[in-house]
Amino acid sequence: MRICFRVRENGNPLRGYVLSGGRKFYVDGCADIPEKFLKSGFVFVGEYLGHEFEYRFDEPFSEVLISEGELLYDTSSLDLKLIEQLVFSGINRFREEKGLESIRWSERLAKIAREKSALLEKEFSHNAGGKNAYRLLRERGIYFVAVGENIYRIAGLKSSVGEEAIAERCVEGWKRSRGHRKVMLSEFTHCGVGVYARQKDVYITLIATLNRVVVESKFTKGQTLLLQPVDEEFDGKARIAVRAHPDRCFSLTYPEYAGREDFVEVRVLESCRGRVVIEYLDV
Q1: Which CDD domains does this chain map to (predicted)?
Q2: pLDDT digit string, tens, across residues 135-186
Q3: Are residues 143 and 202 in the same domain?
Q4: In a designed cystine with 18, which of 25, 29, 59, 105 is the match (CB 3.0 to 4.6 A)?
Q5: C-beta atoms surrounding 36 within 10 Å
Q6: Do both 103 and 191 map to the same domain?
Q7: Which among 72, 51, 80 has a CA at the least distance from the CA of 203?
């Protein structure tokens, strides 16, 4: 099948290549492509007046007209911080629908998520740049009990797609994936969303952490418990706060900054059923 690609306003031919069925077909205005390679749609990639473009088509046409406005559009006009907040709000709405506690925003996690999103341009992987979320956070001295990460990419964005539509597409895409749903609906306490955009592509990263430990039990008067607030792999100090309920049952002694050799001392003043919560504050 012969397919021709032109600029809608002036009829000028477009150059690039078509990706379809695992094959690449070069386009100089037009290209002859066997129909068997077009059954599942195709992608047209090229450059116009110094602007790279990528468009996906679900079915073939003998002539494809693309407006100059679309060809020259890039993501520089997008408000990336707005997209981040819209994704964050969408996650919390989803959690609320499921009867879960809202997750809290962390600008520190968001900064790392933005760095990760920039790495996704070269390698769309949880290990982009050779570092997963666990390593990125530990290298920056952030202590956490558990961490999860979602990533998302929109390629070949069109000018008609604004910040709200981008955020909605991202959250809805994560909802349809079991693994991504799990991250959004887990017991994480804090998260950050980072967005990176270049030309017509947008990359979004969610990093979520659990930043508390809860010890709940029946305690006996006279007991003394020593709780290790950070694990042996953490090479640093984590700023912590410890609280107990009911507070009349406990006496607490702990350092403001805890390393792997430090402990939280819990003395039980009277027998009760209660809980001790260690929170990590540096997120």
Answers
A1: CAP_bacterial (cd05379)
A2: 999 999 999 999 999 999 998 787 778 899 999 999 999 999 999 999 999 9
A3: yes
A4: 25
A5: 9
A6: yes
A7: 80
